[in-house]
Design brief:
Blueprint (H helix, E strand, L loop, with lengths): L18 H15 L12 H27 L9 H4 L6 H18 L1 H23 L8 H14 L9 H18 L4 H9 L11 H5 L8 H17 L4 H5 L5 H24 L8 E3 L5 E3 L2
GO molecular function: chromatin binding
InterPro entries: Cohesin_Scc3/SA
Family: Belongs to the SCC3 family.
Amino acid sequence: MVCFHSDPTLSALVYTPNDMLQDTCANFASCYAFSELNGEEEKEDEDENTENEVEDLNNKRVVLAGLCKLFSYGIFEMRLATVLFSRIISAFGNFGDLIKQTMSKCREININYYTKTIALTLFSEYEKLREVGNGPVDKSSEEYTALKELARRLALTYGIELTKEPIRKAMINLHREAILRSFSRDDEQENEQDNAETEIALPNIGFLAVISECSSRLISQDKKTVLGILKKQMEDIKLNIKDAGRDPELQPLVSYYRVMLEGSQLSSAKTTKLRPAPQKAKRKLDVDGRFQKNM
């Protein structure tokens, strides 16, 4: 299937899996591969158990490698790769090489889809923390700290050449996706907001604190662009930064706003500094040794 997928003349031989099958396969492979080795079985013979663990790990790597190939060759939708991307740190010891190679291939296939998958990965993990806490995320928890570390790690997958145009666009799009998700509300919340004059409810605004971990990958000039995107979202819900500063629940928004504002001001300062200073009229000596203006 993988060999024939890119050849139009052999399209009749290709089976395209539907969404349900893709979801089922991705969930099964990830659950099987990332489950604890040998579960909680009692260990009696150390040598035998070590051999079983090695065999178990090899079997899991085979299954996960098959899933990685389906993403790498574009057979499965990239959005489903969140089950891999979210494990880049926690499962790095046993499966890091497979996950890194898959991420690299996905980035080569389409950097825009790759960026959306990165944003979806982080937001999905953030939503899990909200569900566990039944509301606001506990910022002192180990899980929240791990999520912020995951954000930093995923941002590093774009490489070090941050001034290249494709990378700059990708980083701006990553923050755009994060901003849109941070300002998102479900239909029920929007109806309640429309029917009652209450304070603006943004249940996902805390996600901006997570994506702030990726702000160092933005050059100063692009922080100004991201700030414009943020201001546009704030204008759409008639929210200004002064009002947000008085609301404790909107502090992640205020902090993110300041990071982008400081970055954009730094860019403006550099532009002013690099602007050439006006030159004074040059003077030269005439034949009698006296100075005269150079016309």
